[in-house]
Amino acid sequence: MTDHPPATTPDRRPGGRTARIRAQVLDAVRAELTEGGHEGLTMEGVATRAGVHRATVYRRWRDVGGLLVDVIDAAGEMDWQPPDTGSLRGDLTALNQEIQDSLVVQPSFAVALMAASFHSEQAARAQKKLWADRYAQCEVLVHRAVERGELPSRHTDAHSLLTAATAPVYHQLVLLRADPDPQLPERSAAAAVLAAAAGAFSDLREERA
């Protein structure tokens, strides 16, 4: 499908009736997407489920791409904080467990949204930004580990470490579509921590600076 930018940019924190309508519509998008996937997501279906006139939905979000973008933006507005267990291994294990839980619940909104992003350039851009923001937010896990002396160098590439720690969970559940392994969150975290402690994620450019 060809996406178009929304006619108007929704206020990120609207108030009153506007906020209620947005909440109703985005809840409807999540439900429709989870139940029927991207193929079953329509403006009319969302309007009906939300109890909102379809003209309102078209006027504000314009098309399905606009709805998906706002759902992703809303996820970025959530007051989410990275785990803080007192150790890097514990933090990464908790993060991986969160990711696994979101992917194995049936039906999984997280998986449905990832699939939808392949059909919408707007949604793909929004999701890429959301993930980049989340990984940047999680870099504090690595910075804390350096301060505690768990990692050998302040030049550890936090993004690379986080990617290595979380990638096996996505690979197992999204790419391979395998059954969840209850030990995978901790095993992946432990492997990443061992590799980081050995200097596998050192940023050589910064060390030379």
Automatic annotation (TrEMBL):
It comes from the Bacteria. Pfam families: TetR_C_11, TetR_N. Residues 19-79 form the HTH tetR-type domain. The keyword Aminoacyl-tRNA synthetase does not apply. Keywords: DNA-binding, Transcription, Transcription regulation. Signal peptide: none annotated. Transmembrane segments: none annotated. SUPFAM superfamilies: Homeodomain-like, Tetracyclin repressor-like, C-terminal domain. InterPro entries: Homeodomain-like_sf (IPR009057), HTH-type_TetR-like_transc_reg (IPR050109), HTH_TetR (IPR001647), Tet_transcr_reg_TetR-rel_C_sf (IPR036271), TetR_C (IPR011075). Residues 42-61 bind DNA. This is TetR/AcrR family transcriptional regulator. It comes from Streptomyces lancefieldiae.
